[in-house]
Design a protein that fits this description.
Membrane topology: Single-pass membrane protein
Bound molecules: 4'-deoxy-4'-aminopyridoxal-5'-phosphate
Subcellular location: Mitochondrion outer membrane
Order of helices and strands: EHEHEHEHEHEHEHEHHHEHHEHH
Largest sheet: 6 strands, mixed
Organism: Mortierella isabellina
Distance between the termini: 28 Å
Mean pLDDT: 90
Pfam family, one: PALP
Number of strands: 10
Number of helices: 14
Radius of gyration: 21 Å
Helix content: 25-40%
Catalytic activity: O-acetyl-L-serine + hydrogen sulfide = L-cysteine + acetate
């Protein structure tokens, strides 16, 4: 069983002083929490053995449990309750436009608190996300992926549906339609500033050299980086961007630019990438709040993301989703830029289980001409 090539069996590099890292178990006490929302937040960092060994850096993953969006959805709903907009048990409906994760988190919390959830999603996402939403008894409305300026774009349609619901129902039943609006709602940024950032700081004793993240709404990147940079001014913040997204160009050259859109070479179903949840061609309010924190940006290809995910399950038993794989590609690029001995933090956004029929499906990849196979000789250096 002992295999000296396996990361778990190789001796650790002496050069890394990880004594400041909080040992596992100190993160969440052993208290009994109240309901499913009580489980959200306070998540542990884990060291990714294979990538840390390969780069000589300490590469840490914040593992947020179900989804990084759970805490965002909970804060959006709690903030609306605090403002007197939503009341538990009044049968109100929370509307959201989402590629899935935020919708699933909203549907879960809505169930736990007695609201209904109405989720508008593009129709090209992994089908297990729609199935999960249906099991959580959300209303799911699928739309064709179209430009953000189109009224039928998923975010715009969710806003319209919330307004329509308000007109029809609020006078008779008191129930309202509340548009969660993860892209523009500052409760998204706030929860990462107030919880995710401090959790990372506490667990590392503030000894972090860099964070690296992909972005969708940008709430995670802006919230975490603003908090951490306020305490660690020398911290480097990196964006990692999937194919088709305009953010890389924005960081590098100051303007949003998507090569796929410009060249008219979008893939089937207008999907530029097999990666779900990150990549965007506009700056949302949540992103704008922390965009200036970004020091540098990298791109990640589908091939790198697909191979990275397969590599991590082979080496570490880590079964991750597509945006988390992009984050890990970014972490390796950052490790190369900074050199050995640095501490780099990234995030696990969700598990591979939400991506079985697309990112993790060899059939899907083959049908879309992006069948990348991990060979047994592949290493971190051949993948990224
Ligand atoms: N990964 C996944 C799976 C997501 O759904 C999202 C959000 N759409 C992100 C990453 C990016 O997070 P943020 O919106 O905070 O930029």
């Amino acid at each position: 069983f002992f295999n000296e090539k396996h990361p778990a069996h190789r001796p650790r590099r002496d050069s890394l002083d990880e004594s400041h890292l909080c040992p596992p178990g100190n993160v969440r006490g052993m208290e009994i929490v109240d309901g499913v929302d009580g489980l959200i937040g306070n998540t542990p960092l884990m060291r990714i053995r294979s990538l840390s060994e390969a780069t000589g850096c300490t590469i840490l993953f914040l593992n947020p449990g179900g989804s990084a969006k759970d805490r965002v959805a909970l804060n959006i709903i709690k903030t609306a309750e605090d403002e007197g907009i939503l009341h538990p048990d009044n049968g109100s409906t929370v509307f959201e436009g989402t590629v899935g994760s935020t919708g699933i988190s909203i549907a879960m919390i809505a169930r736990a608190k007695g609201y209904n959830a109405w989720i508008v999603m593009p129709d090209d996402q992994a089908k297990e996300k729609y199935q999960l939403l249906e099991k959580l008894s959300a209303t799911v409305e699928k739309v064709r992926p179209v430009s953000i300026i189109d009224k039928k774009q998923f975010v715009n349609l969710a806003r319209t549906r919330a307004q329509e619901f308000g007109k029809e129902d609020s006078n008779t039943t008191g129930a309202i339609g509340y548009f969660a609006d993860q892209f523009e709602n500052k409760a998204n940024y706030d929860i990462h500033y107030k919880t995710t950032g401090p959790e990372i700081y506490r667990q590392t004793g503030g000894k972090i050299d860099a964070i690296v993240l992909g972005a969708g709404t940008g709430g995670t990147l802006s919230g975490i980086s603003t908090y951490l940079k306020s305490l660690i001014p020398r911290l480097k913040v990196y964006l990692v961007d999937p194919p088709g997204s305009g953010l890389y160009h924005k960081v590098k050259h100051g303007i949003l630019y998507s090569p796929f859109e410009a060249e008219g070479t979008r893939r089937r179903h207008q999907v530029d990438t097999v990666v779900e949840g990150i990549g965007i061609n506009r700056l949302t309010q949540n992103f704008d709040l922390g965009f200036e924190n970004i020091d540098n940006a990298y791109r990640a290809t589908d091939e790198e993301a697909v191979k990275m995910a397969r590599y991590l399950v082979r080496e570490d038993g880590l079964f991750i989703g597509s945006s988390s794989a992009v984050n890990c590609v970014g972490a390796v690029r950052v490790a190369r830029e900074l050199g050995p001995g640095h501490v780099i933090v990234t995030l696990l956004n969700d598990s591979g289980q939400r991506h079985l029929t697309k990112f993790w499906s060899d059939d899907y990849l083959r049908e879309n001409g992006i069948a990348y196979e991990l060979s047994k000789d592949d290493t971190v250096d051949t993948i990224v």
